[in-house]
Amino acid sequence: MMFGRDVTIAVQDPTFPGYVDNGVIMGQTGPAAVDEESGGSRYAGIEYMRCAPENAFFPDLSRVRRTDVIFFCSPNNPTGHAASRDQLRQLVDFARRNGSIVVFDSAYASYVSGDDKPRSIYEVPGAREVAIEISSFSKFAGFTGVRLGWAVVPDELLYADGTRVARDFDRVVTTCFNGASSVAQAGGLACLATEEGRAAVARVVAGYKENARVLVDTFQALGKEVYGGDDSPYVWVRLFPGRRSWDVFAEILEKTHVITVPGSGFGPGGEGFVRVSAFNSRDRVVEACARLTSFLA
User: Fold this and answer.
1) Mind telling me which InterPro entries this protein's record contains (predicted)?
2) Which CATH architecture has domain 9-184?
3) What pLDDT is recorded for position 2?
């Protein structure tokens, strides 16, 4: 809404479908068509930045055309890939050269392991001049349904005419949004501002990361092509090479009663994969793995 309809956008492929849906709702895209290579849907007017095992899930920016806005999620939903410091530096430099604004989604930053993968794009020099960062309490504190998040729009981020992007952001937010509920805000403060809250959040994240490790170990033991799980609660797996992701999803659901997400729902680059989530209790994850093992072995 803030940028209007006359802008061009780029997204990772595959990625969280909300970015594409936002562009469609705002009239920033053309019609959808079937992608000849993958069989998935592709909207005209969107630059799909291929993120696949072949390029270590980071786009070849030399092949990406210039757009006004770049949506980038790290760690990525659905692949689980967390961009390295050097990769984010490349992205920031690319945006600066092209006069693009990066909308950086760090909803899964709490799952990042190690210091070589930034939890915020603002760890990269110059990012405050090209990037907005958005995040959520849903993924690290269990606020799904409560609805609480935040956005950072630096004063250094300017339009081509020199005006502050933050000015428009403030206007849109105050016009369209009355604010998160006091209950949600109090819960958010308890998570961040108290020792007890921070410890509870750390336990939640650690538990989901252990669940992800159980999933990865299961698929690896079955000899499947599996990614993610180290820096993300999501596991990205190709179970049956050559088969459509919706067909794989349907067969797993029918025969095991385990719900996965078809990869093609995240963009044409997701075809052939399914996403498996660690967001559940340990007992249920172990049970799901037992059912999948019985089905796939």
Assistant:
1) Aminotransferase_I/II_large, DapL/ALD1, PyrdxlP-dep_Trfase, PyrdxlP-dep_Trfase_major, PyrdxlP-dep_Trfase_small
2) 3-Layer(aba) Sandwich (3.40)
3) 83
